[in-house]
Specification:
By secondary structure, the protein is an alpha+beta fold. It has 2 helices and 4 strands, in the order βαββαβ. The chain is 24% helix and 34% strand. The two termini are 18 Å apart.
Length: 100
């Protein structure tokens, strides 16, 4: 079995940002994504906007350069205004052609 290592970008954000972030990911080079509705508690507690609905966790497998563009974009566009976190992990995958 042939494997390669690429980046798994995970974003947890206010549900109202769902479609905007998806559009951004695709424009920045992601080929696909997975979305889950999530609930949680962070260092600042449970924000008022989450009491009426879930947050979203959006995950995408991408090349290193796409991951860097996504993080830069999130930092510039969302971090100062919205409740958004993002992190990147190495992921060892098969079928690499699906993600490039």
């Amino acid at each position: 079995m042939n494997t390669v290592t690429i980046k798994l970008v995970t974003i947890v954000a206010e549900g109202l940002l769902r479609n905007r972030i998806i559009d951004d990911l695709l424009k920045l080079g992601a080929k696909g994504y997975t979305i889950s509705e999530v609930h949680g508690h962070g260092s600042t507690g449970i924000s008022e906007q989450f009491k009426d609905g879930p947050q979203v966790r959006i995950e995408t497998l991408v090349a290193d350069d796409v991951a860097a563009r996504i993080l830069q974009h999130l930092q510039e566009r969302y971090f100062n205004t919205y409740s958004v976190i993002a992190y990147v992990l190495d992921a060892t995958i098969v079928r690499a052609e699906k993600y490039r």
